[in-house]
Amino acid sequence: MSDRITAGLKRLFEDQGHRIVFWYDADRDLRGEFDAVELAGVAKLEIANNEFGLKYRMLRQEPKARFLLYKEGAEPAAADNWLLDVQLASAVFKADQTAIWVAELGIPAKYEAAVREHPDFYRSQKRLERLRTFEQDKPSRSEKDVRRKMLAVCAGADGDLDTVIEALLGELADGQDESLRLIARSGLMAFFWKEVEAGFGYAADQPDFQDFAIALFDSAYHRALGDEGRLNAEASLMFRRWANNRHWAGAFEALSQQYQELLKIEDDLQKRDFRLLMPHDHFDAMDRQIIRSLVEAMATQTVNSADVLRWVRERRQSHWYKTYEDIYQAIGFATEFQQALAEANLTMNSVSEGVKRYAASWYKLDQLYRKFIHHMQKSGQAGLLRPLYQSVEKRYTTNFVLAVNDAWQDQVNRLEDWKIPGYVPQRSFYREHASEFRRKDQKVVVIISDALRYEVAEECLRKIRELNRFDADLKPMIASLPSYTQLGMASLLPNSDLSFKTDGSDGILSGGESTQGLPAREKILAAGRAGDRAKAMRAEEAMNMAVSEGKELFRDHDIIYIYHNQIDAVGDKVATEGNLCRAVEDAIDDLVKLVRKLTSANVTNILITADHGFLYQHQALDESDFALADPQGDEILSRNRRFVLGRGLKPTAGMKKFTSAQLGMSGDVEVLIPNSINRLRRQGSGSRYVHGGASLQEVVIPVLRVGKQRTADISQVSVQIIAPGKSLITSGQIAVSLYQAEPVSEKMQGRMLLAGLYAEDGTAISDEHELQFDFASENAREREMPRSFLLNRAADGYNGKTVYLKLRERIGKTSRHQDYASHPFQLKRNTSIDLDF
């Protein structure tokens, strides 16, 4: 008690600067405390019928001295108080518990009732300290102010009612109610509900916080869609601020999941046009409804591609996007596929034109289909995407793969020899590409990725070009026929006089020597140029080397062939061929990592190529996809889904026959290749992933040349703020457009920015949005991002002042941000009637 009295008196003398302080001991029980108190520089005097003398001393004799005047007994009535004039110009110290609390907190005495009526709140020193901090930051101007701060202390919030509600919602999501029970114990519950009713329009005979939370979700949802809401517009604004606050993401998700079933949101969504849902994300059921509607509309082709791509882009800002990211990605790739197919002209007048068109644009259809299948599988929601999948699958297999290869087959049928004018054949790879470096006495590393189809290499090209100081170019090359591993691998070596082994093994001889296995290939490689130190190795071995080992390897060898097998290892097995698209993604990651690994070992010249491509369709094949007749001949040496090796092979309907000589090989082995994309029946092998034939997807293979630059060549897109004509904020929100000035490309990368409204002193006065600017469209309008910002209650303190819409960028991997762009606005709101939404 004595310590609190001393502390209270010190505040009056020292903190508040009073020279004279009166102390009335109404209950005549604090004489001991008065006698005990010691205050440096303060004279203690007692009022005992000596008022005139005291006044003369304090005002005339010692006009600058400090005095504590104690009177045992109650304060006299004003008419009987001879020191009233002095008292009115000074301070009165009250030593009851409430008065001590008021003094400790620095709360004006006239708001004492806000303390006296809630004694249980003040019996915690921790709560007192927190409330004192609030008072120091912003002194109370009413009893309501004091009680509002008490609510914030109870809830562990930052001050205003919004933050109290947010904290209580957080506890509710965790199944806790400690703060609400403390509010009740502190006698603040009636005040709390009165504030909630005034602020958000919630009224109930027996108010309950969970009922309020349900009403908050329900009202915000219905108001967003243009309906009436149980709560007012300010409640909807508060809801959006809370839902957009990353700190409360977990609480929002938990309550949203609970209440969407209770509120029968999914039933209500059935009646809504999905287009109206696009800006909103109150419940994850909204994303599911959007997805279902998009899938149906795309499958029936009742929406245009531009709208779908725009909607998918907009949904990236949804709270639930991460949950449904792969589904949206699948929809996006399906849309691009449908758009590309609609624009494609699948005709050709020669084999050369067919290859040219495939390498220029048709490959993209294979790529988009593969990416669609990959994200559909990864999403785990194949059932949800089924209508779209069935549509894409049919269009891909029938309208593209079959159509383009039927047209291609017409050109292939006219060939006598397997040669495509204007394009390097695979068996000339070493001479045309690898030995180009050796002729200049430059070292080279060749990575051969089994089944690296041209479209996969194109994606790999873009990934490599995204790396700083890396460059790459891609050219098509024509695979040897049949397009299978043993022949493809032999063709990539310095070869001569290639021929088929006739023991049924599918093996290939080069000058009579085996080409199978690393030792055999290394021996042939070393013979390519006299004196070359050659090395053949597996990709796993190269990846596991330390940097020093890699440098030593490259120092000691002139030409290195690295064999990578990810795609074929998965696709060529019936048990795993359905995982082909995931294997392709892994292969691309592998190759990018391998390129980085090699360049860190001082490798400067890298070539990436393949032994063959592949055909793949996710759906099981129809009977019509198989050749009608089994091949016949004097001797069948080997039979695959896409080719037959033998002697004396009979012409077969639906198949094209080549002699070894027509394929540029020695020997008397003949080859039958099924026309177009047809497969041969073969027991126990997969049929969705195949290679060996002459389809464009199998025979157009990549030569990807990778180099390292000396200077940095990566930059980021620039982003601009497009503000309204008048830079004026008059309501609870402001809508702007953000514009990405350039499309992203391999060397022009995207940018992640944090956007929000801020006061001059840096205080955030709106919700904040983390925005990804990575639009690749050449159309400037498709690189605009509209965004609305909701002002929070902190904005009230800056009304009439200049505030700033800022785009801020994270500094490295830290949690700090620096300003990237800024635009000033004048904040002029009529806060008393501001109910805009």
TrEMBL record:
Gene3D superfamilies according to UniProt: Alkaline Phosphatase, subunit A (3.40.720.10)
NCBIfam families recorded: BREX-1 system phosphatase PglZ type A
Cited SUPFAM superfamilies: Alkaline phosphatase-like
Record-linked Pfam families: PglZ (PF08665)
Organism from which the protein derives: Hoeflea marina
Record's protein name: Uncharacterized protein (TIGR02687 family)
Origin: domain of life: Bacteria
Alphabetized InterPro entries for the sequence: Alkaline_phosphatase_core_sf, PglZ
